[in-house]
Write a structure and sequence with these properties.
binds fe (ii) ion; five-stranded antiparallel beta sheet; 10 strands; alpha+beta; 49% helix
Length: 447
């Protein structure tokens, strides 16, 4: 048998086991026999490769890279079970045991209609470690955002308690953020406007990660690099957990001793990630380098050249810090922050990376309050990232500066439109918390 025939036999076996289940109880030979046969075939294929991928593209099954003709007719049961659970890919890894495989087939047969995410959880609970599922389901951005805050909070609390944080939840949430950004580049950027005065470090970490992944996407980074950047950004300030809170929150005027302590955080951060299992060396390096600056005028002092991706973190970090209210500074508007950073480009920031960042954020970044030529005031909620469809503004105040009853969206930039942007408006003057606006909007979505 060649590999193609093996693949066909495997799918046929799974398909018939699923079919038999409608007629026979679990454990019946009509189910067990094909399952055992399939398991042996899988073992054969896994002698030469680390994992087998069974994916579903609409109604066609793709085994590794080979699409199977007439899938719909031949593998109806598999397609049906995958579709109703939103499963996009089934990954079978080398080392899989017959028990794991049998249990997995049983789970697909159960009538509880778990989604891929829930099935993954259930797989873990049953100790099935060599099978995983990828799902098509898109999570609401606000859930992803809130989860990310939860993850970094628990990472930092572990560190405070002297425990080594787990790597897996960090990787998983960065995976979710990345898919969300790839699916809709604007949505999470809007949420990165959520700032927290009291829990600065958590929201800041998540925001920097969102900005860094978004920037990396535009720079065309590989999937692996994108994830490494996302993880480094999320963890970039974990070293601050080792520094007394009153120093971190001190409104300026740090003694030189206190300043020396703060300057330790990139080093501490790197040391922590080194102790976390399965974390790439690059993560530690980018954390170590996030305050070094392009011209090496920052800290820690070093003469060696920077990791090519470190500036992504540095730039995203500076932007989020500048646009956030702190004890020692008011929150700058996105355009003010960009202006200030522009003056530091070539010194603190790599001009090429910064230029891409500026283009990404745009002249009127998502979250900017703007006054329109009609004298209405609104907030930019979408900017053209991949399209030329213009900027979308949600109008909040009418031309007499009265809040509108039903905020509505207008698209700026189409020639026929009567509205264009006149100027930016300081949100504080209107007493608006732009982050809250995005948060509420995201929470309404889909309900
Ligand atoms: Fe930092
Ligand atoms: Fe930071």
């Amino acid at each position: 048998m060649n590999r193609g025939e093996y693949r066909e036999q495997i799918l046929k076996g799974i398909n018939s086991a699923l079919k038999s289940r409608k007629l026979y109880p679990p454990g019946h030979p009509a189910i067990i026999t094909p399952v055992r046969k399939v398991f042996n075939l899988i073992g054969e294929l896994l002698k030469d490769q680390n994992a087998l991928l069974i994916s579903r593209l609409n109604d066609t099954l793709v085994f590794d890279d080979q699409p199977l003709f007439e899938s719909e007719k031949n593998y109806q049961e598999i397609i049906h079970r995958m579709r109703e659970r939103n499963i996009e890919v089934i990954v079978l890894e080398r080392g899989i045991s017959e028990q794991e495989f049998t249990d997995f087939i049983d789970m697909l047969l159960e009538d509880n209609r778990l989604t891929a995410r829930e099935l993954n959880e259930a797989l873990k609970e049953r100790g099935i470690t060599h099978i995983s599922l990828k799902s098509l389901e898109k999570r609401k951005e606000i859930e992803v955002y809130n989860d990310a805050v939860r993850v970094i909070r628990s990472v930092m609390s572990d560190i405070r308690l002297g425990r080594i944080p787990e790597t897996e939840p960090v990787k998983e949430i960065v995976e979710d953020m990345t898919s969300s950004i790839l699916a809709d580049p604007n949505a999470l950027i809007g949420l990165s406007m959520i700032k927290s005065y009291d829990n600065y470090l958590y929201n800041h970490s998540v925001n920097v990660s969102i900005l860094a992944i978004s920037l990396g996407r535009i720079m065309g980074l590989s999937d692996d690099d994108l994830r490494t950047v996302g993880i480094s950004a999320l963890l970039h300030d974990i070293g601050k957990t080792g520094i007394a809170e009153d120093i971190i929150k001190k409104p300026g005027g740090l003694s030189s001793e206190e300043w020396e302590k703060i300057k330790q955080h990139p080093v501490l951060g790197k040391d922590i990630t080194r102790k976390m299992g399965g974390m790439s060396e690059d993560v530690g390096r980018m954390i170590y380098e996030h305050h070094i600056r392009y011209d090496h005028s920052g800290y820690p002092k070093t003469t060696s050249s920077l990791h090519p991706l470190s500036q992504i973190i540095t730039i995203s970090d500076a932007y989020d810090a500048l646009t956030t209210l702190r004890v020692y500074q008011r929150a700058r508007t996105p355009s003010e922050a960009l202006g200030l950073m522009m003056s530091l480009s070539g010194r603190h920031f790599d001009p090429k990376v910064f230029k891409t960042f500026m283009d990404m954020i745009g002249l009127y970044p998502v979250g900017t309050m703007v006054r329109l030529t009609t004298n209405e005031i609104g907030v930019v909620i979408r900017t053209p990232q991949d399209t030329n469809s213009g900027i979308t503004v949600k109008v909040l105040y009418d031309k007499n500066c009265k809040p509108v009853e039903e905020p509505f969206e207008v698209t700026i930039g189409n020639k026929e439109q009567e509205r264009s942007i006149l100027s930016t408006v300081e949100p504080a003057l209107l007493n608006i918390d732009v982050g809250m606006l995005f948060k509420e909007e995201a929470e309404k979505k889909g309900d």
